[in-house]
Amino acid sequence: MTQAMVEVGGVDVHIEGEGAHTVVMIHGWPDTYRLWDGPTQYLLGKFPGELRIVRFTLPGYDLAKAPRRLTTQELVDVFASIIDKVSPFKPVTLMLHDWGCFFGYEYMARHPARVERLIGVDIGDHNSGALRRSLSFAQKLGVAFYQLWLAIAWKIGKSFSQALGNRMARWMAAGMRWRVDPKRMSWQMGYPYVEQWTGGGMGRTAKVAPACPMLYLYGRRKPFQFQSQEWLEKIAAQPGCAVQGFDTGHWVMLQQPDAFNAAVGAWLAR
């Protein structure tokens, strides 16, 4: 199996496989490109010679490099540079999770001709009135608490104490039942929360209404959801689209890997 790495805008981009169809996988907090190890191995085995898998760690999330703080526009520009590099002549399939959904959906809205298919995991219509109305006051407080906590952890790590910033970020990750070695995460991964709450770098984001076929997978067993029922029903009703819930938390691909991979593989095979 062909493996290669190219650097685009200071980001190490990992490419596996030789197929004509390119799948670009983008993770969220507090992960790296290694989140997609299982799905990558599965898809390359299920579709030998058909797919190329492209993965990278979000700018600022690679602990071997200096911290970075990027706005939505800057991240969309990074995605555009990477996708234009790895697939200059054909649109790609995006496979997104967490902040990868937030920024990946925005890339898709601004570059719709570059996305052929879309797989979103556990973040749906994040900026809709329907989602806001579906959350109780206590759930809204819960969302604000964890996001502000991580924004404060970034500020502390950047300006006061990296050790304290790391302890705060890792405490929150443990509370969310994130089960990866804490040494692989850091306060520096929290900059999207800083932009969201204090930096103003998010700007206005597009409505999550993909024009291409979409598969949306989500976990049901969470204190609050990141998609509205109204949006789920709308996506499920569109030709070529599908929605599936799992009895997991936020990290569906880690908590039920076999079922997750099977769902993705079956949808792509259609």
Gist of the model:
The protein has 270 residues and is of the alpha/beta class. Helices cover 43% and strands 18% of the residues.
Overview of the structural elements:
It is a single chain. This protein has 10 helices and 8 strands. By secondary structure, the chain is of the alpha/beta class. It has one domain: Alpha/Beta hydrolase fold, catalytic domain (Rossmann fold, 3-Layer(aba) Sandwich). Strands 1-2-4-3-5-6-7-8 form an 8-stranded mixed β-sheet, sandwiched between helices. Strand 1 and strand 2 form a beta hairpin. The two termini are 24 Å apart.
DSSP strand (E) fraction?
Answer: 15-25%
Q: Mean of residue pLDDT?
A: 94
Total domain count = 1
Secondary-structure class: alpha/beta
What is the end-to-end distance?
A: 24 Å
Rg, nearest Å: 18 Å
Question: What overall form do the CA principal axes indicate?
Answer: globular
Q: Which sequence of SSEs, written as H and E, runs from N to C?
A: EEEHEHEHEHHHHEHEHH
What is the percent of helical residues? Answer: 40-55%
With strands numbered from the N-terminus, the spatial order across the biggest sheet is 1-2-4-3-5-6-7-8
Instruction: Point out poorly predicted stretches.
Output: none
Question: What about the largest sheet?
Answer: 8 strands, mixed
CATH superfamily: Alpha/Beta hydrolase fold, catalytic domain
Number of strands: 8
